[in-house]
Write a structure and sequence with these properties.
Layout: E1 25-26, E2 34-45, E3 48-57, E4 62-72, E5 81-86, E6 95-96, E7 105-112, E8 122-132, E9 142-143, E10 147-153, E11 156-167, E12 172-183, E13 187-195, E14 199-205, E15 227-239, H1 246-257, E16 268-279, E17 287-298, E18 304-310, H2 317-325, H3 332-338, E19 340-345, E20 348-352, E21 378-383, E22 386-392, E23 398-405, E24 408-415, E25 419-428, E26 431-443, E27 446-460, H4 476-484, E28 495-503, E29 515-523, E30 531-536, H5 542-560, H6 570-573, E31 578-579, E32 587-591, E33 595-601, E34 604-610, E35 615-624, E36 627-637, E37 648-659, E38 662-671, E39 681-690
């Protein structure tokens, strides 16, 4: 079946004079000199459409638009719906090739899923390079004949398209192509590809690009069969020498979005329990267990002291430091002062120096003025306004996972094939603090070490807790009443025994197990969990048992960080905030807090919105006995400025049963927690009892 070519409308552009790729001169300029409008819109499929945007340049120097911001009006009183599209990959600097000439016009293609017609869109250019010279005609990229190759994923083995593309220029190119697909559906889509200078790349098409356009060169795992039959270049952009500050431009927003303590040199002390299962040397499958207790203190210089009070044979220092340094970091200016930031790829920034830690052991060449190559240093990767991973050079990279905790963005996981580290948090005296961490170390497919850490009694600045400034404003009392209404999980260290049955989805952390069962004993619950012992039914391999226990602990953390029944005290979350009186719909506006909207109704909190707009949460209540309890938590992940591929809806469903004087969760179901394609998981607790101590 042949798909008809999309009839895109290209507005007339001022002719461009061809230049050699190495000739551009980058100069200052203002995006305000660029005026953009939608001149055509073509529906691709479903909500996806491709807009033709004309940009006029009232300035005195040519401009290369790099990022567009689209808005369409919403029903009042809702704000406009907003989306961004990057015509070129990061960094948004030193680009040339197809600019808008001074006093002229140029057109560009922009995909979007915003629900609007041509005349409803407002468009702004929010990032651009300003350049003298450097305009180039369509580059003579050689595009080979598409062929079908087999690629394997968790969903199966599928034929996908491979096509060779050769860049003849001495400059890196970002290309946008109209690609004709026959599978999974007949359609023409806008696809972005990056090509290195004077090189050939085998481009793999394993997914439809959607609104992000650019294909991930590391992605080879398909979800279904893909067949692309034709490629036509419609837009291009070359990468020039990066100006000073380009690396900081890539990293700054993502680093600032990562929650940190306001005092990078905060002294912190507390108590810990550390448990470890360690494989015996040259005895695969045989493990030794260790459990220690003690106290720790980290001073302003980052020196960590650990005092052992019970147990021996294990060292908790590495995991204590990792948990604290997740939060105890310098601000961005401090990071730049202690490190040299360099781009090692369009979205990867090397930290030449100690990074954000105080005691990272580095060679002298890695100092701030060192001559070491950036490719030899650890770097972080940025996409969609977040740090998504880290690594070094061309070696294996770690992936980062995130969670919004009361509107604060915290890192919950950092994992690669050989190491999986997870972090849990609570809120104490108005600040997010580490509650614990775990680490699984692998050698090939075998688990070598599983470590678990619980932190309690954290004290700051040498002893006392952080002073709490009480919430204020005309709505504080009313919101506090709603906040305190409804059921809360017990905060006392009750001991719970139960059988469990866990049904898994498609997350690879479960090591292929579709269903697991066993018994658990936990002291405390939710944010107040002190210890958790898990015994699985059946004859699991020891390496499976230790890793699966760590993952089950992680799932319990996923639940209670979301459940309003385990909410932090009102004075802690809203410390120092100003709360306006509610409007007619029961919405409280909040300033000076990680939450900027609290939605109420019927005397109960019905939802929260994070200040950064990244996550909105909705609570569904039911009456169990004589108590109102939250039974469902719905989350909208990603704000209006987040790329559509990184926006989705997730849900956590909780069933509660009376046990003694408490209501305790006996069924927890997760849906789409880590993305649209993440399949549901369910944890059921049976024969739940309270142990008498």
């Amino acid at each position: 079946m042949t798909t008809p070519r999309l009839a895109f409308v290209l507005a007339a552009a001022t002719p461009l004079l061809s230049q050699a790729p190495g000739s551009p001169k980058f100069v200052p300029g203002e995006c305000a000199a660029l005026e953009a409008r939608v001149v055509a819109a073509r529906q691709v499929e479903g909500a996806l459409q491709v807009l033709t945007i004309e940009v006029g340049n009232k300035g005195t120097v040519a401009a290369e638009p790099l990022q567009f911001c689209l808005e369409v009006p919403a029903k009042k009183p809702d704000p406009p719906q907003v989306a961004t599209f990057s015509r070129a990959q990061l960094p948004h600097a030193a680009r040339f090739g197809r600019p808008v000439p001074a006093g002229g016009r140029q057109t560009y293609f922009v995909p979007t899923v915003l629900p609007g017609k041509k005349g409803q869109f407002t468009v702004r250019v929010t990032a651009a390079s300003f350049v003298e010279g450097g305009a180039i005609d369509e580059p003579a990229v050689t595009i080979g004949k598409p062929e079908q190759v087999q690629r394997e994923s968790m969903a199966g083995t599928f034929p996908v398209t491979k096509v060779a593309m050769t860049n003849p220029l001495d400059a890196t190119l970002d290309l946008l192509l109209l690609v004709t697909f026959e599978q999974p559906r007949d359609r023409i889509d806008l696809v972005g590809v990056r090509l290195d200078p004077r090189s050939t790349r085998d481009v793999l098409v394993v997914t439809l690009p959607g609104v992000d356009a650019y294909l991930d060169p590391m992605l080879e795992a398909p979800g279904c069969a893909m067949k692309a039959t034709a490629f036509e270049i419609v837009d291009w952009c070359a990468v020039g020498a990066m100006p000073d500050g380009a690396a900081a431009e890539v990293l700054r927003a993502a680093y600032d979005a990562w929650y940190r303590w306001p005092e990078p040199g905060a002294s912190v002390a507390g108590d810990f329990v550390f448990e470890e299962r360690r494989m015996r040397f040259q005895q695969p499958g045989k493990f030794d267990d260790f459990r220690i207790k003690g106290r720790f203190a980290m001073d302003a210089a980052g020196k960590l002291d650990v005092e052992m009070r019970e147990g021996e044979g294990a060292n908790a220092s590495f995991l204590i430091r990792a948990a604290i340094e997740n939060l105890r970091r310098p601000d961005f200016a401090g990071l730049v002062a202690e490190n040299r930031l360099e781009l090692v790829a369009a979205d990867r920034v090397a930290l030449v120096g100690p990074g954000w830690t105080k005691e990272r052991h580095v060679g002298s060449a890695h100092g701030t003025g060192g001559s070491v190559r950036a490719e030899e240093c650890a770097d972080v990767q940025v996409r969609g306004g977040r740090i998504v991973g880290d690594g070094m050079g061309s070696g294996e990279r770690s992936v980062w996972e995130w969670q919004s905790l009361g509107g604060r963005l915290v890192r919950t996981r950092q994992f690669a094939s050989y190491l999986d580290t997870r972090f849990t948090y609570s809120v104490v005296d108005g600040r997010v603090v580490p509650a614990g961490a775990s680490r699984v170390s692998m050698a090939g497919t075998s688990v070598t070490t599983v470590s678990g850490l619980t932190l309690t009694g954290l004290r700051f600045d040498g002893g006392g807790t952080v002073p709490v400034k009480q919430p204020g404003g005309p709505g504080a009392a009313a919101l506090q009443a709603a906040w305190n209404a409804g059921y809360r999980l017990p905060t006392t260290p009750i001991v719970i025994e139960a059988k469990f049955v866990l049904t898994t989805g498609n997350d690879g952390v479960w090591r292929g197990k579709k269903k697991l069962s066993g018994r658990l004993v936990m002291e405390g619950i939710g944010r107040n969990l002190r210890s958790l012992d898990i015994a699985f039914d059946g004859n699991l391999a020891r390496e499976d048992e230790v890793q699966l226990a760590a993952v089950l602990r992680d799932r319990l953390g996923m639940w209670y960080c979301r459940d309003f029944s385990d909410r932090v005290p009102f004075d802690e979350l809203f410390a120092g905030a100003t709360i306006d009186a509610p409007d007619a719909d029961g919405v409280f506006r909040v300033t000076g807090c990680s939450v900027d909207r609290v939605f109420t109704g019927g005397g109960l909190v019905r939802g929260l919105r994070a200040t950064d707009g990244g996550t909105a949460t909705k609570f569904t209540w039911e009456k169990v006995g004589d108590r109102q309890v939250v039974v469902r938590i719905d989350e909208k992940i990603g704000g209006p400025d987040t790329p559509a591929a990184q926006r989705w809806e997730a849900a956590t469903i909780v069933g509660l049963t009376p046990v003694g004087e408490h209501l305790l969760p006996t069924k927890i179901a997760f849906e789409h927690i880590f993305g649209r394609d993440w399949l549901p998981e369910t944890l059921v607790l049976r024969d739940v009892k309270l142990r008498s101590e």
